[in-house]
Write a structure and sequence with these properties.
Helix content is about 20%, strand content about 30%. The chain has about 190 residues and is α+β, with helices and mostly antiparallel strands. A hairpin with a 5-residue loop joins strand 7 (about 130-140) and strand 8 (about 145-150).
């Protein structure tokens, strides 16, 4: 069952899109919904979604993965995966518990980026010899939270992670703001 707020926002945004008022209202049709695995190629993805925030290439220099993030204002990061011929094999919104569980102690920053894409902010805690990369997301309970990956500042290897309410959208007293989770192919408010 779809979240009732999602349904209302979806209906409002679709109606506004049909009247051409999308930009003024903050509603956006997620460009990733236009990407078709097995058919779309790198140039079509860039035409639809723009230049990626990060890319990964194979030994021949062809793009095999691209990250598109709308953080810190929102809470999604899309990974688009390509085969050796540059055709899309999949699209995934990676800001979720399934992908956070892939982050393991001992990983380096490149490995973390390949799973989660670019971090929205970085904190350095000198006294703890720790650097945190922060990723905003909409939790399973519809709360705005931050997943922070901690690195040892000497080895630059992951040594832990923590989830906290998102301070950029706090309601005070450590209470997290509400959000509407992204559902692939739907319209949502940015």
């Amino acid at each position: 069952m779809k979240h009732p707020v999602t349904q209302v926002k979806r209906s409002v945004c679709i109606g506004l899109a049909m009247t051409g008022l999308v930009v003024m209202t903050g509603c956006a049709v997620v460009p990733a919904a236009n990407i078709k695995p097995g058919f779309s190629n790198v140039s079509q993805v860039e035409k639809s979604m723009g230049k990626p925030d990060m890319t990964w290439r194979n030994s021949q220099g062809k793009v095999i993965q691209a990250a598109y993030s709308d953080q810190p204002a929102s809470f999604t990061t899309f990974m688009v995966y390509f085969n050796e011929q540059g055709v899309v094999t999949g699209v995934d919104q990676v800001m979720n518990n399934r992908n956070f569980a892939k982050i393991k102690n001992g990983m380096d920053g490149q490995q973390v980026h390949k799973i989660l894409g670019p971090e929205r902010s970085v904190d350095h805690f000198s006294a703890l010899h720790q650097i945190d990369w922060n990723y905003g997301y909409c939790s399973d309970n519809d709360g705005r939270e931050v997943f922070s990956v901690s690195f040892d500042d000497k080895t630059l290897k992951v040594n832990g992670s923590v989830v906290t309410p998102d301070p950029l959208f706090s309601l005070g007293d450590n209470e997290e703001a509400r959000c509407v989770p992204y559902i692939m192919g739907e319209t949502y408010a940015r």
